[in-house]
Amino acid sequence: MSGATYPSLRERHVFISGGSSGIGAGLVRAFAAQGARVSFCGTRADGGDALIAEAAAAGHPRPWYGACDVRDAAAYQAFLAGVIAARGPVRVLVNNAGRDDRHRMEDVTPAMWDERLALNLKHYFFAIQAVAPAMAGAGGGSIVNMGSTSWMRGRPQLAGYTTAKAGILGLTRTLARELGARNIRVNAVVPGAIDTDRQRALHRDAAADAAFLDQQCLRIRLDAGHVARATLVLAADDSDGMTGQHVLVDAGLAQTSVVA
Question: What is the pTM of this model?
Answer without folding.
Answer: 0.92
